[in-house]
Design goal:
Layout (H helix, E strand, L loop, with lengths): L1 E8 L4 E8 L4 E5 L5 H11 L2 E6 L5 H4 L2 H8 L3 E2 L6 H5 L1 H8 L18 E4 L2 E7 L8 E5 L4 E5 L2 E2 L2 E2 L9 H12 L7 E4 L5 E2 H7 L7
Parallel strand pairs: 3-4, 4-5, 9-12
Antiparallel strand pairs: 1-2, 2-3, 6-7, 7-8, 8-9, 10-11, 12-13
Length: 212
C-alpha cells in the first residue's frame, strides 16, 4: 500500500511529500523545492530508500532542490509536462526574484503526459495534466488510497494563481472540474501549500469552484 508523509519546505512552506510502498519501502519525493537536509533526515527516519523525484510543476518552491538532489543521489527526475520547460530554464531567475537559494535548471529523465502512470515499489499512481497555474502542471492520483498530490492547482478554500506567464484561469477551472472532480468526492488531496481537504468539501464550499 502507498504511504506518505508531507514536509513543508522553503520560505513558501511548500508541501513536499515523501511517498513510499510499504511492502518494498521504496520511495519517491514529490516536489523537493529545497531544504534537502530536512528531506533526507525524514528519509532516514522513515527507513525508506529514495529512488525517484516526481514533479508537479517547475516553480522554484516545488522544483528548486531537484538538480542538487538528483545529482547527489543519482535519482531520475520524472515530470512535469514539457510545457513547463521555460519554468525549468528560468529557475536561476526565479531564485533571484523570490530571494531563494540558487537553483540549477535540469533535464527531466522522463516528461509526463495526461494518462501516464508512475510507479514506486508495488504502487502505481495515475498522472493527469492539469494546466492553468502553469501550462505543464501535472497531478499524481493514487486510486488505491484515495489521495491526490495536486501541487498548486487547488487548495483548501482556494485555487492556484493564474497571473504568471502562460497562466490561464479558464484552463485551471477546467483542470479542476474535468480532471480532479472525477477522482471522487471522498478523495483527499495534498495541496502545494496549507492543509489537506477533500474534493467533496471543495465542491461544496470553495469560493472559486464551489457548486461545480
Ligand atoms: Zn506554483
Ligand atoms: Zn507553490
Amino acid at each position: 500500500m502507498l504511504r506518505y508523509e508531507t514536509i513543508p519546505v522553503t520560505a513558501f512552506q511548500q508541501n513536499c511529500s515523501i511517498v513510499w510502498c510499504d511492502e518494498t519501502r521504496k520511495a519517491a519525493v514529490v516536489d523537493p523545492g529545497g531544504d534537502l537536509d530536512l528531506l533526507l533526515d525524514a528519509v532516514r527516519r522513515l527507513g525508506v530508500t529514495l529512488e525517484q523525484i516526481w514533479l508537479t510543476h517547475a516553480h522554484i518552491d516545488h522544483a528548486g532542490g531537484t538538480a542538487e538532489l538528483a545529482k547527489k543521489l543519482g535519482l531520475p527526475i520524472i515530470g512535469p509536462h514539457p510545457a513547463d520547460q521555460f519554468w525549468i530554464d528560468g529557475l536561476p531567475e526565479q531564485g533571484r526574484r523570490f530571494g531563494l537559494p540558487h537553483a540549477d535548471p535540469f533535464t527531466p529523465t522522463r516528461w509526463l503526459h495526461d494518462g501516464d502512470t508512475v510507479s514506486v515499489g508495488h504502487c502505481t499512481l495515475q498522472v493527469r495534466h492539469c494546466p492553468g497555474h502553469t501550462p505543464g502542471h501535472v497531478v499524481f492520483h493514487s486510486s488505491e488510497i484515495h489521495r491526490a498530490f495536486v501541487g498548486d492547482v487547488l487548495f483548501a478554500g482556494s485555487i492556484g494563481r493564474t497571473d504568471f506567464p502562460q497562466g490561464n484561469h479558464g484552463d485551471l477551472i477546467r483542470s479542476i472540474t474535468e480532471r480532479l472532480w472525477p477522482m471522487g468526492d471522498d478523495t483527499v488531496f495534498i495541496p502545494g501549500h496549507g492543509p489537506e481537504s477533500t474534493f467533496g468539501r471543495e465542491r461544496k464550499t470553495n469560493p472559486f469552484v464551489g457548486g461545480t
